[in-house]
Write a structure and sequence with these properties.
Pfam families (chains A, B): GSDH
Strand content of chain A: 35-45%
GO molecular function, one term (chains A, B): oxidoreductase activity
Number of strands of chain A: 24
Oligomer: homodimer
Number of domains of chain A: 1
CATH architecture of chain A: 6 Propeller
Organism (chains A, B): Variovorax paradoxus
InterPro entries (chains A, B): 6-blade_b-propeller_TolB-like (IPR011042), Glc/Sorbosone_DH (IPR012938), Quinoprot_gluc/sorb_DH_b-prop (IPR011041)
Strand order of the largest sheet of chain A: 1-24-23-22
Number of helices of chain A: 1
Protein name (chains A, B): Soluble aldose sugar dehydrogenase YliI
Structural class of chain A: mainly beta
Shape of chain A: globular
Largest sheet of chain A: 4 strands, antiparallel
Radius of gyration of chain A: 19 Å
Order of helices and strands of chain A: EEEEEEHEEEEEEEEEEEEEEEEEE
CATH superfamily of chain A: TolB, C-terminal domain
């Protein structure tokens, strides 16, 4: 412990390392961690961080560009049913071999944690795209059994308007049940020509998501273009604006995109970074007791920003406003690919890259 | 009369000439004709075709590319209220000078026909576009006072997906009242973020339109890209497919556009021309008595095709099917810019170009 730290000051230490290009992680009820690696491995890390193993039964993934095995999350009733959800990019077949689709599957983790079985694809983004960029890919399951999936616009500038088109999955959040069926009360379930799974539209590349425990609302973080990263409280059936309104601009030239930064009928973000580009990976709501001052704060991991942003909110949970924001843990100098609250209320930060680790942030007097 | 013609054979003759790049025409109850010229003149031609005059009071139009003063139509109660409707492209102001918007206005034609007054803009396509292509621009008024406007996708390949986006007017038909207000029963009138005037989506460049007198449905003709011209019976609130499904392909390369020629949730056209490109201008339902064999047929004027296509239909008016089609009047060798049924049941064909004319098609025994 550094000499200048109080006992309740947050301290960062390496919890586990040896991870290769990880993307998502999730705690299991026993405190052990599931971690995805983009090239197609699902790892399990013991609750003390000392043992790491690979889970068998993962499908082949298409890991070109930013794709591959992406997120992992668990069922609300995981303790009894052992169900996990995985997102990944899957190459097409035959003539469609150059395309890939964001795909979401459910599987059952064996009791000994060595493999997954009963693999079932729940969702596939069709048609696929010819790159592996702006994939979205984050999963969030609500306590009442809805699975939200974030989907990016797949980057191609000439196709970005698909984020506004209800006939495409690009640039959307979607909501299905954990068995893959589509809820009748989805906003476009009955609209001829619309994808019934769509929950909201007008997103660029949302790669962070959680379901708020009190409101059931989906909160997301999304990558803007050059500048214009956003946090959004997603509204059922509504239009969050990309690419019509954004606080960002085109790469390199910073040419204007769309029509401005706001417009009637387009939902404004809860928060945004005009510049610089911080590249948010995931976000969480902190509900732990270890850091009472952080309770109810939202933490956003950032890649380019190499920090974790902390947001203090005020107002009702379904109509929040930001009253304070600060960048934390910049001294780590790490791109943060995912973050979670551990069972003990510590923060766990998953770093990015070919040689990645998990950093545990805990009170100085509570280190493992 | 050619010696080889029967008395009831259709014969073409010049009704009027001296028109400069005309676009639309409409008969008034007294048999005289209103004709637009793209550079901004509204002409009136007497019922016998002999006198032609210019109507004063037309706004300045932006006639770059295919734009300018486009269509003209009259109110169902024109005989008593003298109201006319005009569509045209209008340049933006200030910073938006390089853009133009399809605009629709209403005005009152003076009793002597010399000028229009009480000019009122009813609709403006905002934001504008930086070209004057794929404008749409056809007007059709229903007997019960709804004004339909066809709007093209504005051509830019990177923007064509706007035809699928409810937040844009591009690639839509819209429906307003003849006073410019938006009917509450428009399909997206209550949808946050959608343009409330939208009646249907997924059109490329619809430049032909009529309201069917029995069903009240909007029938349109639209230009495809290279190939893929279509006739559509428009369904309220539904998706007619462009650019996701089309029978056409990209110019020059004939590269594939979208996903194919049909898809669940996308309305199929009533008829299409895969190749060659005929470029439909306008279409009408023939209801006259002069050619009994044509009654209930749909006639489509074509530009590139230099002919008028006649379609025989069967089935209910709201679920028709094509049973026969033929190209007529190809011997004229004229690009047909508009066509109308005259008060006497003759067909009037408006030709295209800087030196254009109106051709009257009538029974050989009924020539003026």
């Amino acid at each position: 412990m550094p000499a200048n730290s109080a006992p309740d000051a947050p301290q960062a230490s390496t919890f586990a390392d040896g991870l290769e290009s990880p993307w998502g992680m999730e705690f299991m009820p026993d405190g052990s961690l599931l971690v995805t690696e983009r090239r197609g491995r699902l790892r399990m890390i013991s609750a003390d961080g000392r043992d790491i193993s690979s889970i068998q039964g993962i499908p082949r993934v298409d890991h070109r560009d930013h794709g591959g095995l992406l997120d992992v999350t668990i069922d609300p009733a995981f303790a009894s049913n052992r169900l996990v959800y995985l997102s990944y990019t899957k190459a097409g077949r035959g003539l469609h071999i150059d395309r890939n689709s964001l795909t979401v599957a459910r599987a059952r983790l064996s009791d000994d944690g060595s493999r997954i079985d009963e693999f079932k694809v729940l969702f596939r983004q069709t048609p696929g795209a010819v790159n592996g960029q702006n994939l979205g890919g984050r999963l969030a399951v609500s306590a009442d059994g809805y699975l939200f999936i974030t989907i990016g616009d797949r980057h191609a500038p000439q196709d970005r308007m698909r984020a506004q088109a209800l006939a495409y999955y690009q640039g959307k959040t979607v909501r299905i049940r954990t068995d893959g069926t589509v809820p009748d009360d989805n906003p476009f379930a009955a609209r001829h020509g619309a994808r019934p799974e769509i929950w909201s539209l007008g997103h660029r590349n949302p790669q962070g998501a959680f379901v708020h425990p009190r409101t059931g609302q989906l909160w997301i973080a999304e990558h803007g273009p050059q500048g214009g990263d956003e946090i959004n409280v997603v509204r059922k059936g509504l239009n969050h604006g990309w690419p019509m309104v954004t606080f960002g601009c085109e790469y390199d030239t910073c040419a204007k995109i769309g029509e401005g930064t706001s417009r009637r009928g387009m939902e404004a973000p809860l928060a945004f970074w005009k510049t610089p580009k911080i590249a948010p990976s995931n976000l969480i709501l902190y509900t732990g007791d270890q850091f009472p001052a952080w309770k109810g704060n939202v933490f956003v991991g950032t890649l380019a920003g190499k920090a974790v942003w902390r947001f203090e909110l005020a107002g009702e949970d379904n109509a929040p406003r930001v009253v304070r924001r600060e960048a934390l843990f910049a001294e780590l100098g790490e791109r943060i690919r995912d973050l979670r609250q551990g069972p003990d209320g510590s923060l766990y930060l998953l770093t990015d890259g070919a040689k990645a680790r998990i950093v545990r942030v805990a009170r100085a007097d509570s280190m493992l």
